[in-house]
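Ticket #4471: structure export looks truncated?
Reporter: QA, pipeline team
Priority: medium

Steps to reproduce: submit the single chain below to the structure queue and open the exported record.
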Amino acid sequence: MAKATKATKATKTEVKEETIKKGTSEQEKSKEVKEKEVKDKSGDRDLSIEQRLGNLYLLQSMLSEIDKIKTLRGELPLEVQDLEDEVAGLQTRIQNFQLDYKDIEMAIGQQKIKITDSNALINRYKEQLDNVRNNREFDSLSKEMEFQGLEVELAEKRIKEFTAESKLVAEEIQKSKTLLEDRRIDLRSKKDELDEIVAETRIQEEQLREKAKQIETTIDPRLLTAFKRIRKSARNGLAVVYIQRDACGGCFNKIPPQRQLDIKLRKKIIVCEHCGRIMIDPKLAGIE
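Actual output as written to the record:
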């Protein structure tokens, strides 16, 4: 009985030790995963300042090439957009004119119905005049005939006005259609021209954008955010510039000798005191 008890205790001890080992192994794995995640999130923390600056300048070069491609397209995208807006506006204008034309035609039709009704009443009143028994009935019928005659004249006047108006609207519709066709031809021409330029540069632009995305993954998020902010506010889109003739390559303000030395040492990221651009020495930019 004692031997069985000892065996049971030994078994429990072995299970406990295996559980502890398993837990320790899982903790180590978890720790390795966390360390890898931290390392991935750290971006370029392990990179030197020189490497960071080199990556930033390389990213700047890629984005500048993309800017050149956009410049090559010029004002075409805006012109295409303006023409598309004008075509859409002309289409809406034509639709409105067509609705007005239908309303006018309907109004003319209503006036013609009034004329028909009034003439019918006049004819009926004429028949009744032959059977009048006194002057009072005669005067009443005469007034009704006169009133219906005025209604006919008014309806005919309105028909003339509506007809003249419908003629003007029809002319506007025709003018708008002619202008619309001209604008559509211009739009097709501009689109073809833009598509041709885009087709020529699409592959190059896509490759540059892909490379730029890859470089961005090597740059610290805060530094990348600062880079994009500077680039957005810079007139020429340059966020990283090198020293040119002892001056900032962005705003061309003179840089003190000590500051130039700090830039050449590449020990820290230095920005221009005047324009805020990140500065590097010419050698890092490949300029001898």
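Status: closed, not a bug. The export was complete when the record was re-opened. Leaving a note from the reviewer for reference: Residues 76-202 form a domain with the Four Helix Bundle (Hemerythrin (Met), subunit A) fold (CATH 1.20.120).
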